[in-house]
Amino acid sequence: KKWLERIEKQLLQEYVLHPDPEKAFEYEPFKSHGGFKQLNKIFDGQLAHIVREINYNLYNYHSKKEQA
């Protein structure tokens, strides 16, 4: 749950995560907690897919919002 809260806080600051999942988690608040490798273990090796889905959905949401 704490990882999800950290991701949420990051997304409140920026619309999307870095497109390269390893780079997305090499900075704080993720780095000091094991970064990409640790988070990828927690999410059963699915972190890259999760980052792509989050970015895709958030980018599309904000693009549609700006066009309205």
From TrEMBL:
GO terms for biological process: DNA modification. Pfam families: EcoEI_R_C (PF08463). Transmembrane segments: none annotated. This is EcoEI R protein C-terminal domain-containing protein. Residues 2-59 form the EcoEI R protein C-terminal domain. GO terms for molecular function: catalytic activity; DNA binding.
